[in-house]
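User: For a benchmark we're assembling, each entry needs the component sequences followed by a predicted structure for the full assembly. Here are entry 17's components. Please fill in the structure.
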Amino acid sequence: MAATIIDGRLMAADIRAEIAQEVSELRTQSGVQPGLAAVLVGDDPASAVYVRNKRRACDDAGMISETFTLDADAPQEEIVSLVRRLNADERFHGILVQLPLPGHVDERDVIAEISPDKDVDGMHPVNGGRLLEGRPRFVPATPAAVQTMLMRSGADPAGKHVVILGRSNIVGKPLAALLMQRGPGGNATVTLCHTATPDVAEHTRRADVVVAAAGRPRMVTADMIREGAVVIDVGINRVPDASAKSGSRLVGDVDFDAVSAKARAITPVPGGVGPMTITMLLRNTLQAARYAAGAD
Ligand code: NAD
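Assistant: Structure for entry 17:
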């Protein structure tokens, strides 16, 4: 039987409408309008697109958003002093430093400068620690998107075996911490595979839920998936495609056509986790504004 498609665009539109409503209520009740500052260093076209999409989503939700752009060769001290200025700027409840930063900059040092109360990407070590403790304040957007997609599509991870491919600080590791937590949206048994896992398929074949975040185009093939599993594809990979006008197209980490004939539910790429990730950033920014307004 063909899998149900978990439509990230549709789900994101619903949640963004809810967020817009909550933004409007917060403004009426407390006069606080949530604000997001995005820091963009250099002229990487993909980063510029990501930041533009995030800002547009903020505007649509009734939030303030502003992008602060620095040259690619801006010294680390200049980036840090911008972050400190934004920490003190009451217009902004959330600060987003778009990664990757240029090679001469130590990303961890810059992220450590963001006030944990404005760290809506959940990347500051304090927020990582809170997540591990089971008392998250800002969950990184992509893991939050995966969890929300599971819950809203009726695939509660509780009691399930979830196999995650990828151990990055932005996706794999925080997602494992999130899904293994005690409480709603958690209670899963989590296996995390990475480049040093000898036989990834041995794990995925036993999974109720597979989350692919390895950045390897179509690496998850049908033989790696159990009949009736739920498959969440985080991967975004550009591959050559002679039939496309641009000469390339985006695919996920999952061989979508073959796997969707076997899975119970699956997310597409594009139109899956991506739109939901931006939505979770909006949710975190709203949450940060609520804290600042004393509303939570
Ligand atoms: P990353 O390169 O930092 O990490 C990839 C991880 O995958 C590594 O930990 C590595 O150990 C693991 N890995 C690589 N090959 C593997 C294999 N064959 N088997 C098992 N594990 C393997 O990447 P990232 O930042 O975590 O992103 C992963 C993918 O998700 C990328 O394609 C990225 O573009 C995409 N992404 C999408 C969103 C979204 O909003 N949809 C957000 C963030 C990242």
